[in-house]
Amino acid sequence: MKNGNGKATAGGLDGVVVAETALSEVDGERGRLVIGGYDVEELAKEATFEDACALLWHHARPSAAEREAVRAAIARGRVAAFERLGSLGDALDAEGGMDALRAGAAHLREASAAEITGAIGVFAAAWHRRRAGLAPVAPDADASHAADVLRMTSGAAPTPAAIRALEAYLVTVSDHGMNASTFAARVVASTGSDLVSAVVAAIGALKGPLHGGAPGPVLDMLDAIGTADRADAWLRGELAAGRRIMGMGHRVYRVRDPRAAVLERAVSALDAPHLALARAVESAAAAILREHKPDRALAANVELATAILLDAVGLHRDLFSPSFAVGRAVGWCAHVSEQWRTGRLIRPGSRYVGWNAS
Ligand code: COA
Questions:
Q1: Contact 136, 102 (CB under 8 A)
Q2: SS3 category, 34
Q3: Among the four residues 98, 165, 193, 290, which has the most C-beta atoms within 10 Å?
Q4: Which tens digit of pLDDT belongs to each residue from 172-187?
Q5: Known catalytic residue: 250?
Q6: 244 CA to centre of ligand 1 in angstroms
């Protein structure tokens, strides 16, 4: 299959432009990411989660009053979602956190971007506690979203360093061009459907291991490797078994994912138990993948650093993908508004090949 430039897409729409967006720009050749007009390095260093929401939803860095308005709206979303927990039935009994988020989000009615964003944090924390046999922790309407997600998860007051690191993570993943979950949201929005439906579709897309499902397995991989001296043999064994190395490779980046360095910097203020091993595994994996696929640049994506950071802020690995959804929900909602404004149905074509074609 070919795209408009005659480039093979193998059904993956590689390089096909499906929308114009003012929200973020991914430069895969140079390893650069711009969110809302700011380099991700700069944004993640300074911006709060609420700043990123304001930037993507209202297209400007907020004043103090605007930041507070966004914070309060998301906090109201947390409070409303917490009050609805009892009516979710068995939605939070799901085996996986993303299934719980999808089911929880599907229960929302005519929710705004801030309400959905607030609710996703509540569902993730409540699902995690329910699995541990613990009662959900009520939101604090005066807290920032990052601080409250940590508190609602652990039940304890988080440290300022953990809040800051999680905030940097959430800002960093808040938007990323036409990634698969964002595309899913835009396709749903393009039919004239509602925001909740678009977000439910996006959660389904984010769940997959080729997209947002990778950071939990990354930590499993580090555990299985155990020590740096075992990395080479373990990684070669994975490739020999026909499996992919989690946390490596990207559809767009041909160099190291710029978000990896941003997250490594963000984690430097914390005790990150897996950091040294992750660095050793990354360099072993990069070398082995160079041998394995000499024609394809396969460098670290965001997920290795994500796993290290989320582990260091005290989140269980089962919450890694749901945490990604907490951040990316901001971008999904912004893209839905952008898509609605176009008024154009996304409806690509297909080439009929019949039953007997291979
Ligand atoms: N480990 C081993 N081989 C890999 C690889 C990895 N992590 N990533 C890509 N490859 C190989 C593919 O198997 C393919 O080989 P083939 O041509 O023999 O089939 C080749 O490199 C090209 O990969 P392709 O499938 O075109 O890349 P993609 O753009 O479709 O995939 C990812 C991008 C992210 C899905 C892919 O790199 C991957 O699966 N990574 C691991 C999962 C992960 O970390 N996901 C999080 C993404 S942020």
A1: no
A2: strand
A3: 165
A4: 999 999 999 999 999 9
A5: yes
A6: 7
